[in-house]
């Protein structure tokens, strides 16, 4: 990090070459070219505007430049105009192309040229100029590797102010540059405009500008990650200044004098305190804890009262999804990344190109929450996918949705030429929908034609770009005469399309593969790419539905990390959970011990898994429900959710080894271990009652003459019926949507429900 920053404050020359146009706002001083260059001095700041008469096209730019004069002067950068008189010549008064640029000088040295269209307003002018001058204080990066290298280089030396802005020249970019002007010698500023880099840090609201403070100076271990603090306020100069000051302030200040005479950073910055500061003498820790907890209760009460005045009615709202939508109601989604379909455009669009269609209702909370995930998918696929992402608002086009057999929403369907529409049935989240779209790029099951191709398929080389979306590849092995078995497997492969990669091999030399993998035909081979092993399963006298269940269960990880998305999948196995709670990455020795017992079939009656509290913070609440207080980690427990609700904890005074764990499990089986908790038997329900939209519609409809509602049609008849276009379009738009039902779903609520069940 350069410390030549203070030299910049002496003065910077910023020279603008443009065409002269008289206006009321044009108040910048004018100089001749000779006079201007004679006034330039090392470190002297000047903005020179080379002018020619009668060019109204630059009037808007001149207004913004004139407005930028004062803020630039605050940073030692003055602004002036130079009149391109005919008796004097200058290369900056040359062609029209030269006059469409801005030039940044330090003294007589030209530092940077800017196209004038990039300096579109005051914020852009100030941001671009400071960004060019602070090239040592602000490091621009584009990859995660750049960020990691910068972080490692500054560990033990300095802290980092890392910011993401949507584009250079925005108001947020200007705010960051102004902060860097003040704090550039204290912290290393790092800037990016790459969304993917922000996603790698774990931020969901990627459409907003962000600023993180990386606490790298206290970190001496190069393998340890710098602690990160997110600035939750919007990126303005004042907010960043306050944030930086609070990062410098101690969390606890020891006072040895009259507290009334003490002024803290928080008071100096005018930060909101909520209630007047009280100074008390507390003689022990218990009194301090009691006092803080009492104040927290008061604050929560005030917040509840405020919520009664503003915002949605929390007693009758749909569920927590509605609260999320209300909180994010001002978030501007880039809807232009998807195509909005209407009754006139739907049929033409889905028949002309492979399309993904989201059917949603603009007034319904779950639909609007999922719309955010849908747009996130569009952002990830921008410029890389041949699939057209579209959407239909069923609140406006109910007849279109009814004709597509959409009786609940949100619903996602895939339309491909020559194929029936395929409905998406996975989790309503970004990653799962992205996986579905990417895996549908190939036809399943894939027809394998040679032993060599089969080996490439099993190794992951054949579709290596899709391996990240499917942890397993399934290959069905059949002799050419096993027609019925092949049909059953093909039906199962079609059903699993978009969720797992399946292939089929039925050539004359199929025995080569069956002998190699010691399996009798018909059979399937399951390649686990992460673990690098291939399992074989017999398919004798097995029907399509059973094959789907076999593949679904076999594709589950043997020792998964439990997350919000995959918890329901593992709960469906109806087995007690053997959960290893960890505050970060799992200990390799613990993982090895559990996987060894899995391999030896000692854990067949359990579902072994682990939970990373850093990735899934609600796990702390679950542990507190078990133990009342958060116990030391790592911690191993058996949770019998489906029968009895007992919770057993592995002894904390024992290390997690194969021998100790196996002995403990045998004691559990023999009834020799005592439970630490019995979970109450109760249904898992949403935290609040859902709106009954159908009853509301029925009540409204009962007051008017009955109208015929379009009947649901079969999925296989959709495209044929799409060709029939109704004549009375206005009548159809006003048609009641009584046939549409709502999917009550909450992406983050699985664990909250589990927590209730666990407690």
Automatic annotation (TrEMBL):
Gene3D superfamilies reported for this sequence: Glutaredoxin (3.40.30.10)
Domain of life, per lineage: Eukaryota
SUPFAM superfamilies linked to this entry: Thioredoxin-like (SSF52833)
Bias kind Basic and acidic residues: ranges: 716-732
Membrane spanning residue stretches: 7-25
Region (Disordered), start-end ranges: 716-740
Domain TXNDC16 N-terminal: 27-130
Keyword list, A-Z: Membrane, Transmembrane, Transmembrane helix
Record domain TXNDC16 second thioredoxin-like: where: 131-250
InterPro entries: Thioredoxin-like_sf, Thioredoxin_domain, TXNDC16, TXNDC16_2nd, TXNDC16_N
Signal sequence coordinates: none
Span of domain Thioredoxin: 339-438
This protein's GO CC annotations: endoplasmic reticulum lumen
Protein name per Swiss-Prot or TrEMBL: Thioredoxin domain containing 16
Native organism: Balaenoptera musculus
Lineage: Eukaryota, Metazoa, Chordata, Craniata, Vertebrata
Gene that produces this protein: TXNDC16
């Amino acid at each position: 990090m350069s410390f030549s920053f203070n030299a910049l404050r002496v003065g910077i020359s910023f020279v603008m070459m443009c065409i002269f146009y008289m206006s009321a706002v044009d108040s910048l001083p004018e100089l001749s070219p000779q006079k201007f260059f004679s006034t330039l001095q090392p470190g002297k700041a000047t903005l020179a505007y080379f002018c020619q008469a009668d060019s109204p096209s630059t009037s808007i730019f001149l207004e913004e430049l004139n407005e930028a004069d004062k803020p630039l002067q605050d940073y030692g950068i003055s602004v002036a105009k130079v009149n391109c008189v005919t008796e004097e010549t200058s290369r900056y008064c040359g062609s029209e192309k030269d006059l469409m640029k801005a030039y940044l000088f330090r003294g007589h040295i030209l530092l940077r040229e800017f196209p004038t269209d990039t300096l579109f307003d005051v914020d852009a002018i100030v941001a671009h100029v400071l960004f060019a001058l602070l090239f040592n204080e602000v490091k621009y990066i584009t990859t995660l590797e750049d960020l990691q290298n910068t972080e490692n280089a500054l560990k033990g030396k300095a802290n980092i102010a890392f910011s993401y802005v949507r584009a250079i020249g925005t108001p947020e970019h200007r705010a960051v540059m102004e902060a860097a002007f003040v704090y550039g010698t204290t912290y290393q500023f790092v800037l990016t405009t790459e969304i993917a880099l922000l996603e790698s840090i774990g931020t969901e609201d990627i459409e907003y500008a962000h600023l993180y403070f990386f606490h790298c100076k206290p970190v001496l271990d190069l393998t340890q990650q710098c602690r990160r603090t997110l600035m939750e306020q919007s990126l303005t100069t004042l907010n960043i200044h306050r944030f930086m000051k609070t990062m410098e302030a101690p969390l606890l200040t020891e006072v040895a004098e009259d507290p009334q005479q003490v002024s803290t950073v928080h008071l100096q910055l005018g930060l909101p305190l909520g209630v007047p500061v009280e100074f008390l003498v507390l003689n022990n820790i218990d009194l301090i804890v009691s006092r803080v907890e009492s104040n927290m209760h008061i604050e929560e009460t005030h917040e509840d009262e405020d919520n009664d005045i503003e915002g949605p009615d929390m007693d009758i709202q749909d569920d927590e999804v509605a609260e999320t939508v209300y909180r994010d109601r001002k978030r501007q989604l880039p809807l232009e990344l998807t195509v909005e379909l209407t009754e006139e455009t739907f049929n033409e669009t889905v028949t002309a190109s492979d399309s993904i269609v989201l059917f949603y209702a603009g007034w319904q909370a779950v639909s609007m929450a999922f719309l955010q995930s849908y747009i996130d998918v569009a952002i990830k696929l921008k410029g890389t996918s041949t699939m057209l992402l579209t959407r239909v608002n069923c609140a406006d086009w109910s007849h279109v949705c009814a004709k597509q057999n959409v009786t609940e929403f949100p619903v996602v369907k895939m339309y491909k030429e020559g194929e029936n529409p395929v409905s998406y049935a996975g989790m309503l989240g970004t990653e799962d929908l992205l996986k579905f779209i990417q895996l549908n790029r190939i036809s399943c099951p894939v027809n394998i034609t040679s032993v060599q191709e089969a080996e490439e398929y099993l190794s992951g080389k054949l579709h290596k770009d899709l391996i990240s979306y499917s942890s397993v590849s399934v290959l069905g092995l059949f002799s050419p005469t096993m027609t019925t078995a092949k049909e059953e497997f093909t039906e199962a492969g079609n059903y699993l399309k978009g969720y797992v990669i399946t292939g089929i091999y039925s050539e004359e030399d199929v025995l080569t593969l069956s002998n190699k993998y010691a399996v009798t035909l018909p059979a399937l081979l399951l390649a686990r790419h992460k673990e690098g092993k291939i399992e074989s399963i017999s398919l004798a006298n097995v029907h399509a539905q059973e094959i789907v269940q076999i593949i679904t269960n076999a594709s589950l990880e043997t020792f998964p990390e439990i997350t919000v998305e995959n918890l329901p999948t593992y709960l469906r196995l109806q087995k007690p959970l053997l959960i290893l709670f960890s505050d970060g990455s799992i200990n390799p020795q613990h993982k090895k011990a559990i996987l060894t017992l899995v391999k030896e079939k000692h854990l067949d009656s359990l579902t072994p898994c682990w939970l990373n509290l850093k990735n899934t913070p609600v796990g702390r609440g679950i542990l507190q429900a078990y133990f009342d207080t958060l116990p030391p980690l790592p911690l191993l427990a058996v949770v019998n959710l489906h029968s009895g609700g007992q919770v057993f904890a592995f002894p904390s005074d024992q290390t997690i080894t194969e021998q100790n764990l196996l002995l403990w499990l045998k004691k559990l089986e023999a009834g020799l271990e005592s439970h630490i908790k019995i979970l109450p038997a109760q249904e898992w329900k949403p935290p609040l009652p859902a709106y009954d939209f159908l009853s509301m519609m029925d009540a409204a409809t009962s007051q008017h003459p009955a109208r015929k509602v379009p009947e649901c049609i079969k999925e296989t008849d959709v495209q044929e019926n799409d060709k029939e276009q109704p004549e009375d379009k206005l009548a159809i738009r006003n048609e009641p949507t009584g046939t549409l039902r709502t999917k009550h779903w909450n992406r983050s609520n699985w664990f909250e429900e589990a927590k209730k069940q666990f407690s």
